[in-house]
Amino acid sequence: MTTVLVADDQPLQRFGFRMLLESQDDMTVVGEAANGTEATRMTAELHPDVVLMDVRMPGLDGIEATRRIVASGGRTRVLILTTFDLDEYAYSGLRAGASGFLVKDAQPEELLSGIRAVATGDAVVAPSLTRRLLDAYVHHLPAATQPGASSGAPDPRLSTLTDRETEIVRVMGQGWTNTEIAERLHLAESTVKTHVGRILAKTGSRDRVQAVILAYETKLVG
């Protein structure tokens, strides 16, 4: 059973999410939060598998709440929800440690599969959304987060990667799925998964989303 905390300042939105999630045999909503402060407190108390996190809420917003939840070191994963315009807050949410990003007009099946994937440790951002999101906001990255941008020196987070792993990080940043990587680089999909796992471990990336952001920050993609 996947336990979910719904964080949204709109009561009707929370009601709709609860009705959808509790229609599933493998999900249960353990609580509802109307702002980031409540979401942070209830996560610490209830230890849900997934927090379905709205971005714009009164008081403590979803970005800071995500940052605090991730920093606590618990097992809870955060799935960010935002509006269709892919505003900069969504990018900030991923940088804060969220494991996924979905727009609010996603199909119910997309939301349900996204929650299930995040609960099992995967990252959830459709490749097309990854590309659109990061393309739109990579120019907001401060120079300090791009160590190699001015000096030309290789980023230390990439220094332990093999040539093949570096290549895979690059195409991950371009939005390729594991299946596409396997087909285009003539590798077994199991081999790709092994490479991705090693990349995450070597770079200290929490999940695939963080590795994609790393590819942009270090100019592997741009």
UniProtKB/TrEMBL annotation:
Give the signal sequence positions: none
User: InterPro entries, per this entry?
Assistant: CheY-like_superfamily (IPR011006), NreC/VraR/RcsB-like_REC (IPR058245), Sig_transdc_resp-reg_C-effctor (IPR016032), Sig_transdc_resp-reg_receiver (IPR001789), Tscrpt_reg_LuxR_C (IPR000792), WalR-like (IPR039420)
> Pfam families this protein is in?
GerE, Response_reg
Q: Where does the record place the Response regulatory domain?
A: 3-119
Protein name per UniProt: Response regulator transcription factor
Does the keyword field hold Transcription?
Answer: yes
Its lineage reads: Bacteria, Bacillati, Actinomycetota, Actinomycetes, Kitasatosporales
Note the PROSITE patterns from the entry.
HTH_LUXR_1, HTH_LUXR_2, RESPONSE_REGULATORY
UniProt keyword terms in alphabetical order: DNA-binding, Phosphoprotein, Transcription, Transcription regulation
Q: Which residues form the HTH luxR-type domain?
A: 154-219
List of residues that carry 4-aspartylphosphate:
D54
Which CDD domains has this protein been placed in?
Answer: LuxR_C_like, REC_NarL-like
- Top-rank taxon: Bacteria
Q: Does the keyword Methyltransferase apply?
A: no
